[in-house]
Amino acid sequence: MSVGFQASPAVTSIRGNPMTEMLDYRLVFSPGITFDFNITRNFSFNSGLAFERKGAKMTNIYLSSSEDKFVSHDYKSNFDYLTMPLMFTYNTNTRVNFYIGGGTFLGYLISQKDISGEILDTAEYIYDGTDSFKRLDAGLSFLTGVNVPVAPKLILDLGMRNYMGLVRINN
After folding, report:
1. Which listed site, 23, 60, 75, 111, has its alpha carbon 20 to 30 Å from 36?
2. Which of 108, 159, 164 is nearest to 4 (CA)?
3. d(Cα 56, Cα 131) in Å, to the nearest integer?
């Protein structure tokens, strides 16, 4: 068994209804702890617990009638989760170790906030929509990447994970 820490960038977006198609992806940061349990030389079970900010963003540009100029307005939707993946992984188990795997994940919604940026002289507005969503999320998870040794007992993990939620989270 090995235990590690993750501090990884993540690209997130929202899907599921036509309104979300107008939103752009977001680049966020995901810290957490990981657990790897070797089953055989090439197969392992991976889990852990991570904080994940899922969501999307949008920038509207419009002509202000009062200012007679173009104005931009930023909007962000944040879904903050504690996520626990449960995955099986195939490893090449070589010095530079390639891996691929999949499984499921469980997520617990900590909070959901919609943030509407300043518009002219109107202050930023934050709406707490946590109660509008189910607290539990679940779905499929996929991962692939490579582990590169950088020092004894220290590896650089260059990987990618995808969590595809399958639960309708709206209340």
Report:
1. 111
2. 159
3. 19
* Cα distance between residue 75 and residue 129, in whole Å: 14
Residue 50: CB atoms within 10 A of its CB come to 22
Count other C-beta atoms under 10 Å from residue 99's C-beta: 20
Could you report the per-residue pLDDT of 1-43, keeping only the tens digit for each?
A: 888 888 777 777 777 666 666 677 777 878 999 898 999 999 9
Total count of residues recorded for the chain: 171
Q: Which of 22, 75, 50 is nearest to 141 (CA)?
A: 50
Q: Return d(Cα 16, Cα 111) in angstroms, integer.
A: 19
Measure CA 147 to chain center: 21
> In the numeric block, which tokens belong to residue 131?
């109660």
Q: What DSSP state is assigned to residue 167?
A: S
